[in-house]
Amino acid sequence: MNEIKQVFTYLKEREDWYKEQIRVLQTQCPHENVETKRGANTDNWDYQDFYWVVVKCLDCGMVARYDSKEHREQYRKYC
């Protein structure tokens, strides 16, 4: 195995470990310090208006999109 591949493999293993640690941290975060951006699609030909909110936690970096129909509870929490 050449040196570049060895270094790449080493770094990739560490990257996977850190990503898992971030995921665990994000599941424990209460997401109280958030930035929100609302969106809407109200120009549908069938008059089915669609609303959503994108939430970014400023503490843990989690980003999620909640739409008004599928994620009603989370959507209301952040709107």
Give a verbal description of the structure.
- This protein has 2 domains: about 1-30; about 30-79, no CATH class.
- It is an alpha+beta fold and about 80 residues long.
- It has helices at about 5-30, 70-79; strands at about 35-40, 50-55, 65.
- The N and C termini lie far apart (about 55 Å).
- Strands 1-2-3 form a 3-stranded antiparallel beta sheet, covered by helices on one side.
- It is built from 2 helices and 3 strands; from the N terminus they run αβββα.
- It is about 40% helix and about 25% strand.
- A hairpin with a 5-residue loop joins strand 2 and strand 3.
Q: Care to give the gist of this entry?
A:
With 79 residues, this protein is α+β, with helices and mostly antiparallel strands. The chain has helices spanning 3-28, 72-78, and strands at 34-41, 50-57, 63-67. It has two domains: 1-30; 31-79, no CATH class.
**Alpha-carbon distance between the termini?**
53 Å
β-strand percent reads 25-35%
Enumerate the spans where pLDDT stays under 50 for 5 or more consecutive residues: none
Compute the gyration radius: what is it? 19 Å
List the helices and strands and how they pair.
Layout: H1 3-28, E1 34-41, E2 50-57, E3 63-67, H2 72-78
Antiparallel strand pairs: 1-2, 2-3
Descriptive labels:
single chain, 79 residues, alpha+beta, 3-stranded antiparallel sheet, elongated
